[in-house]
Amino acid sequence: LSFCTFSKLSLSILLVIAHLTAGMVDLTRHEKEKHFLTATGEKRLFPSLHDPHSRELSVVVPAYNEELRLPVMMDEAMEYLENRQKQNPSFTYEVIVVDDGSKDKTTEVALRYTRKYSADKVRVLTLVKNRGKGGAVRMGTLSSRGKVILMADADGATKFSDIEKVEGGLNDLNPKPENMAISCGSRAHLEKDSVAQRSLFRTFLMYGFHFLVWFFCVKGIKDTQCGFKLFTREAALKTFSSLHVERWAFDVELLYIAQCFKIPIAEVAVNWTEIEGSKLIPFWSWLQMGRDLVFIRLRYITGAWKLQSSHKTD
């Protein structure tokens, strides 16, 4: 076999594998995932992203085994949000903590905030099984009431008050008339410092990942992985309705979908601190994300995955 023939054969095999192993968009919910608990322990149905907004801001916090780190993030977020509401009483918000099938007391810890602030301000969505960060963010987003929706990591790595920076980025996009826009927090400005602190091998993996993101999926965004992104309600519905990847590379597919729909995206520098206890196992997670990146593009090319209309969940 010549090299050219071998390359074509390998690509054909890869395309077939990508097509045959493609999972579909899973928007179904277990019966237990349709409800949240009030401060007095009563069950209430979550609303739908298809409903009109009734809050200015929703904050979706995916959390897997986060009983230790969640309180630090929640204390900072709630202090900021409560102060903002005091200064501007017309500002309304909610925080949705999504327990992604944790084995620890993440749900119990989160429910303390429901009891302290009320279920109107803090709701806990407990998933029956672990879906992955992307699946948790989507389930929380589809249950939110906000005019704009912020996804924020449970580790509190990004200073919460930096929401004002991503809000500024969103407003600068001037998302009228369809109100489609996404503003991404970015750590790209910190890259030089992080390279100096990383091993040569991890730096190689990082640049390799950036190349794959650029080559296969998303152009023009330097940091796709920062867990601090703000969506208009309309952009969230459009993108999350088509999302297939539920684990670490979900951010990339989300932004790929946004670019396919020509939704404007801003990238805004935010403060970021590395927090102990990261769920990423560096080498294997990079390999998994690299594989997902290649397969994201191939599955859209082969038609195994298609961009969805914003259909309702079961």
Which characteristics define this entry?
314 residues, alpha/beta, 7-stranded mixed sheet, two-stranded antiparallel ribbon, 10 helices, globular, transferase
Q: Can you tell me about this structure?
A:
The chain is an alpha/beta fold and 314 residues long. The chain is 42% helix and 16% strand. It has helices at 3-20, 70-87, 106-117, 133-141, 163-172, 191-197, 200-217, 233-240, 250-260, 282-302, and strands at 35-37, 43-45, 55-63, 93-99, 122-126, 146-152, 182-186, 228-232, 265-269. It has a seven-stranded mixed sheet, sandwiched between helices. A two-stranded antiparallel sheet has the order 1-2. It is globular and about 70 Å long. The relative contact order is 0.16. The model has no long low-confidence stretch (mean pLDDT 86). It is found in: Endoplasmic reticulum membrane. Residues 58-236 form the Glycosyltransferase 2-like domain. This is Dolichyl-phosphate beta-glucosyltransferase. One of its GO terms (molecular function) is dolichyl-phosphate beta-glucosyltransferase activity.
